[in-house]
Design a protein that fits this description.
Elements lengths: L1 H25 L8 E3 L5 E3 L12 H15 L5 E5 H7 L4 H8 L9 E2 L5 H8 L9 H5 L1 H8 L2 E3 L7 E3 L12 H6 L2 H19 L3 H29 L5
Antiparallel strand pairs: 1-2, 3-4, 5-6
């Protein structure tokens, strides 16, 4: 059974590599959140803060949806998400979605699209704001969370703010007033709610995928045993 042991070991190693690669991609490539120059002119590494992602926390997702529609949807689109899906998955009554979250449309079945001409937006910001449907899958949850927490005042910039993660970002610090109104801990919590919603928006079935994936791997490991024995039986007379 040594060959079987080697096969199982190799399969397990392959699974581990796959999981490691997925984790690295989720953590913005595993390389942190960039670098910045401190007051002494020395370049320092900026570590990513861990985003509080929890799809089971419906309250957080609901607060995040409100944050997104109030602070993000005015400039950004999310064309792969429909308001009706938000109502269904986040357990928000449709009438409340229609009353409070339909800021870019009047139909609950519509996608999140502000309808602004990208060329006009480019003239405002220097580049059209990206669609945010898949932003956390592109950048990583932690990268987006750290980015939103890393704005600072910079009078030299057109909008009066800059960012440690993405230097000279075209995006203004849209959460500045909220940051000034709240304490540090509460502000980080609100940003966490926003990123939690964005992570859900990018992949609503993430928790299901991870849960089913565990059982699929167990099934494949078990299936490997009869497949190996069957293969051995088929080839036993072949020299």
């Amino acid at each position: 059974m040594s060959a079987l042991t080697k096969s199982l070991t190799g399969f397990g190693f392959g699974v581990a590599l796959t999981l490691a690669a997925t984790t690295s991609a989720q953590a913005a490539g595993g390389e942190g959140c960039g670098t910045f120059t401190n007051a002494d002119g020395v370049e320092e590494h900026l570590a990513c803060s861990t985003a509080p992602i929890d799809f089971a926390n419906k309250g957080s997702l609901q607060r995040g949806a409100t944050m997104f529609m109030n602070y993000c949807a005015g400039c950004h689109t999310a064309k792969y998400v429909r308001h009706s899906r938000i109502a269904q998955d986040l357990e928000i009554p449709p009438e409340l979605v229609e009353k409070y979250l339909l800021v870019t449309s009047d139909q609950i079945g519509d996608q999140i699209d502000n309808g602004i001409d990208p060329e006009i937006q480019a003239s405002w910001f220097g580049a059209p704001p990206p669609d945010l449907s898949l932003e956390t899958r592109l950048r990583g949850d932690d990268w987006v969370y750290t980015y939103l927490l890393s704005f600072y005042e910079d009078p030299s910039r057109p909008w009066g703010a800059n960012n440690l993660v993405l230097h000279n970002a075209a995006m203004p610090h849209v959460l500045m007033n909220l940051q000034n109104q709240l304490g540090e801990e509460e502000y980080r919590s609100r940003v966490g709610d926003l990123v939690n919603f964005m992570a859900w928006m990018a992949e609503p079935v993430r928790e299901d995928r991870q849960r089913y994936g565990f059982f699929v791997i167990i099934f494949l490991l078990i299936l490997l045993i009869p497949v190996y024995l069957l293969n051995k039986e088929f080839w036993k007379d072949v020299k």
